[in-house]
């Protein structure tokens, strides 16, 4: 084979490999991307699944931004405030020379299903006044093979007087048979009754309220029955708080225990290490029964000294029962053993105690391991499901995000509100994805370090 | 009085280990022993436990739900471990080359494995709805079966013609010569497109609406909802194990491959005689981790079940069986029975570990 031929073959093989890599990439990211796109749609289960829908069209972004500004002075989240006015233009195609009779209504539509249905929020229909649709223009036009006219209408929605802030102002526009909606300031959310009724969920949505409407709903519609605060926001903050606390306790206590196991001599060291390895292999389903009872009694009644009857449904219980995991200790022990002993010898000769050596000399050298441990712990706690599920049962305000997602799924799964469910799922991934994007090396390395942990 | 240095060091160790010992002793050792104790009693959380011997263990095997859970757990564990090990290994071998931009690809592949089981379960629920993306994808494939068939046949035809032509000119090319295949593929794509354009082949009307979740129907003895969980979890765990395999592959000396290439060894021989034997420690580790992780399947069962989801008897696993007996809805807790099931699960896990210790190589091999 001549060298030119061989080179050509090498290039071709490279091209195949990259093609394969790309195909794998589509396989691994595809479902996420599709799920994310679906979470923006009004109907995530539409058949056939389309990639071009109202929420991804820049024309609608601009309109939503403008309308949100008109309705509430808030181009991002939109809505309507007293004294404001929104105008909307629509264009219908009809073969008839006479303009089609349109009927516009502000429906009394309850926001959401499931948890959202519990709350009576003000109905826009009770506060706003609709003027129109008024015909503003008529032009001869062709639609496909058909000759006809395009009729332009203007709708004016005003909110006179005083009243509450309206999160959304829905609109239904019914056209007679033969009239076809060809253009609108803002594309309707959906068509009903065989396309005769164009329906808007919100005519003044704002940019975020339009593109990420399911996400905004996730925050707005899950509210506490007592306080009316957003539960979804609470769950997010709870998860954030717990994850940060757990990172902190793990960093301190795993370094301490890891150092003792790696460097100090004491009776039973080897036995302790083996026992620790054993503890990592026993499934959580074995220990949770007793741990549940221990927390219920406030750790042998110790919590009563602080006036707490039970540690169930408290973060104190959750934190105390998971101060430091064996896997974290294992990682730190392995890391400390990789540091040469000479580093500490000078300090020991100067008469430094093990504590001083650990905190003054060893830990400052251990930033890579501590960084990896922080990220793994954060991810682990953020994603943890089983144990918080056992400990935190009521009220719903104390749930962590994964538990919240389960109650989400149960509240909205029955009615099939998949946009909301997907939005919740994707929102919960955000912090971990940010961490992953910033420190992906640690994640990938953590797998090999934590290999024994699983 | 001065403490002896040894004693002092041990005291320091005790102090440093104190928080860890607290969690280890209270929330592991005590809990483990108590679960073992409960498993020999009829404890129900309310009345004091009464010793019943091995009755709970015997009773487990008379409980149809436990046997279902056991069957599901074993089937799930074996299928997922087999699939994820195979695909992770193949992917790692494909990725184990000094290519430009390979890190970016690895990062992208790793994405599915960083998310929570809760979020993954929600995605699963959406994907496997009756009009979900999985059924839509299957419908699309089936509808375009003529196109796929013609694409395959045309590719083979173009490739065959090119190879025959090259061989006539006296060039020794293999049938799947990459350079020629690179030309055959677009030709076949174009030709298929043209055939579709002229109406020789057309898409069929196919609408697959498999009810993946709300069903107890089985395929190969495994219920549909469990298959959905199997597919989803294989998909999210492949990257994790791929990374382990990659670390292992780095440890194999390149000279072995060069020697094999000089001897003219085929890719299969290289794979089965060099890669797999030298990867044995990692392979064992991956299989062990896979088995241990999958034996504890719980979260997905909870998410996939529930309102409008899969019936419990189609998805129940051992871990869920344990939980369900401690916190049953509308019945008395059967902690004794649950503890026995939990210990049985722990026994399975330890068995896997022991088998690895016995037949695998200790963890020295995998660190890479």
Structural description of this entry:
The complex is a heterodimer of chains A (454) and B (368). Chain A has 454 residues and is α+β, with helices and mostly antiparallel strands. Chain A is built from 17 helices and 8 strands. The longest helix of chain A has 38 residues, at 3-40. Chain B is mainly α and 368 residues long. Helices cover 69% and strands 1% of the residues of chain B. Chain B is globular. Chain B starts with a helix and ends in a 9-residue tail after the last helix. In chain B, 41% of the residues are buried. Chains A and B meet through α1, α5, α6, α7 and α12 of A and α1, α3, α4, α5 and α8 of B.
Q: SS-based structural class of chain B?
A: mainly alpha
Interface with most residues? A-B, 107 and 104 residues
Low-confidence stretches of chain A: 450-454
Provide the spatial order of strands within the biggest beta sheet of chain A.
3-4-1-6
Distance between the termini of chain B: 50 Å
Report the count of strand segments of chain B: 2
Strand fraction of chain A equals: 5-15%
Number of helices of chain A: 17
Short structural summary:
The complex is a heterodimer of chains A (454) and B (368). By secondary structure, chain A is α+β, with helices and mostly antiparallel strands.
Give the SSE layout.
The complex is a heterodimer of chains A (454) and B (368).
Chain A: H1 3-40, H2 58-72, E1 84-94, E2 103-105, E3 129-143, E4 146-159, E5 171-174, E6 180-184, E7 190-192, E8 197-200, H3 207-211, H4 213-221, H5 231-263, H6 269-281, H7 284-296, H8 298-301, H9 315-321, H10 326-337, H11 342-349, H12 354-365, H13 367-383, H14 386-391, H15 401-413, H16 418-438, H17 440-449
Antiparallel strand pairs in A: 1-4, 1-6, 2-5, 3-4, 5-8, 7-8
Helix pairs in contact in A: 1-16, 4-16, 5-10, 5-13, 5-15, 10-13, 11-12, 13-17, 15-16, 16-17
Chain B: H1 5-38, H2 55-60, H3 64-95, H4 102-110, H5 117-127, H6 133-143, H7 145-168, H8 178-197, E1 218-219, E2 222-223, H9 224-250, H10 254-262, H11 267-278, H12 280-295, H13 299-304, H14 312-315, H15 318-326, H16 335-359
Antiparallel strand pairs in B: 1-2
């Amino acid at each position: 084979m001549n060298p030119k031929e061989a080179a050509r073959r090498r290039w071709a093989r490279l091209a195949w490999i990259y093609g394969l890599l790309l195909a794998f990439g589509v396989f691994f990211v595809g479902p996420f991307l599709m799920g994310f796109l679906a979470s923006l749609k009004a109907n995530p289960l539409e058949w056939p699944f389309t990639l071009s829908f109202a929420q991804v069209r820049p024309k609608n972004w601009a309109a939503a931004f403008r309308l949100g500004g008109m309705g509430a002075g808030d181009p991002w989240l939109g809505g309507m405030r007293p004294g404001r006015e929104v105008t909307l233009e629509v264009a219908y195609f009809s073969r008839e020379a006479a303009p089609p009779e349109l009927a516009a209504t502000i429906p009394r539509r309850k926001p959401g299903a499931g948890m959202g249905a519990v709350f009576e929020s003000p109905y826009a229909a009770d506060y706003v006044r609709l003027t129109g649709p008024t015909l503003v223009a008529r032009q001869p036009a062709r639609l496909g093979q058909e000759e006809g006219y395009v009729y332009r209408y203007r709708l004016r929605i005003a909110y006179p007087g005083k009243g509450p802030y309206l999160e959304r102002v829905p609109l239904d526009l019914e056209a007679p048979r033969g009239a076809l909606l060809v253009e609108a300031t803002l594309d309707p959310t959906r068509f009903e009754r065989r396309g005769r009724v164009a329906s808007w969920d919100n005519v003044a949505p704002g940019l975020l309220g339009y593109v990420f409407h399911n996400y905004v709903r996730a925050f707005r519609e899950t509210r506490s029955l007592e306080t009316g605060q957003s539960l979804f926001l609470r769950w997010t903050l709870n998860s954030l708080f717990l994850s940060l606390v757990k990172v902190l306790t793990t960093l301190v206590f795993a370094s301490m225990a890891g150092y003792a196991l790696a460097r100090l001599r004491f009776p039973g060291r080897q036995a302790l290490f083996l026992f620790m390895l054993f503890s990592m292999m026993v499934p959580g389903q074995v220990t949770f029964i007793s741990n549940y009872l221990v927390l219920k009694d406030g750790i042998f009644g110790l919590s009563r000294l602080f006036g707490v009857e039970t540690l169930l449904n408290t973060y104190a219980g959750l934190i105390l029962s998971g101060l430091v995991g064996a896997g974290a200790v294992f990682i730190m022990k392995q890391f400390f053993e990789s540091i040469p002993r000479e580093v500490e010898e000078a300090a020991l000769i100067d008469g430094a105690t093990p504590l001083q050596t650990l905190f003054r000399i060893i830990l400052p050298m251990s930033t890579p391991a501590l960084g990896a441990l922080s990220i793994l712990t954060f991810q682990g706690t953020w994603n943890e499901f089983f144990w918080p599920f056992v400990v935190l049962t009521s009220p719903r305000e104390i749930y962590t995000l994964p538990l919240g997602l389960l109650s989400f799924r149960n509240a909205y799964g029955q009615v099939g509100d998949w946009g909301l469910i997907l939005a919740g799922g994707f929102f919960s991934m955000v912090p971990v994805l940010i961490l992953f994007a910033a420190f992906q090396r640690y994640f990938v390395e953590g797998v090999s370090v934590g290999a024994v942990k699983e | 009085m001065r403490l002896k240095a040894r004693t002092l060091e041990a005291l320091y160790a005790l102090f440093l280990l104190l928080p860890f010992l607290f969690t280890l002793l209270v929330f592991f050792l005590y809990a483990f022993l108590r679960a073992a104790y409960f498993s020999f009693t009829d404890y129900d959380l309310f009345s004091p436990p009464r010793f019943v011997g091995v009755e709970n263990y015997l009773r487990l095997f008379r409980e149809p739900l436990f046997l279902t859970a056991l069957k599901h757990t074993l089937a799930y564990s074996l299928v997922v471990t087999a699939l994820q090990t195979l695909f992770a290994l193949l992917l790692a071998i494909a990725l184990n080359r000094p290519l430009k931009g390979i890190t970016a690809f690895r990062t992208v592949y790793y994405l599915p494995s960083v998310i929570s089981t809760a979020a993954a379960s929600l995605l699963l629920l959406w994907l496997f709805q009756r009009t979900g993306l999985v059924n839509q994808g299957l419908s699309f494939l089936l509808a375009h079966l003529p196109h796929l068939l013609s694409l395959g046949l045309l590719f083979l035809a173009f490739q065959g013609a090119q190879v025959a032509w090259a061989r006539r000119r006296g060039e020794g090319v293999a049938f799947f010569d990459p350079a020629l295949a690179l030309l055959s593929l677009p030709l076949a794509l174009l030709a298929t497109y043209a055939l579709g354009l002229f109406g020789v082949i057309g898409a069929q009307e196919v609408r697959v609406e498999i009810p993946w979740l709300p069903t107890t129907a089985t395929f190969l003895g495994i219920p549909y909802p469990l298959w959905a969980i199997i597919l989803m979890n294989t998909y999210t765990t492949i990257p994790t194990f791929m990374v382990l395999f990659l670390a292992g592959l780095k440890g194999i000396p390149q000279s072995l491959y060069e020697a094999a290439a000089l001897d003219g060894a085929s890719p299969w021989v290289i794979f089965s005689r060099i890669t797999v034997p030298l990867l044995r420690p990692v392979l064992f580790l991956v299989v062990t981790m896979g088995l241990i992780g999958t034996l504890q399947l719980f979260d997905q069962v909870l998410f996939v079940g529930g309102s409008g989801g899969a019936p419990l008897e189609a998805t129940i696993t051992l871990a869920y069986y344990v939980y369900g007996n401690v916190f049953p809805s509308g019945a008395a807790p059967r902690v004794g029975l649950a503890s026995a099931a939990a210990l049985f699960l722990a026994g399975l896990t330890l068995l896997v570990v022991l088998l690895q210790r016995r037949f695998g190589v200790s963890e020295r091999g995998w660190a890479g």
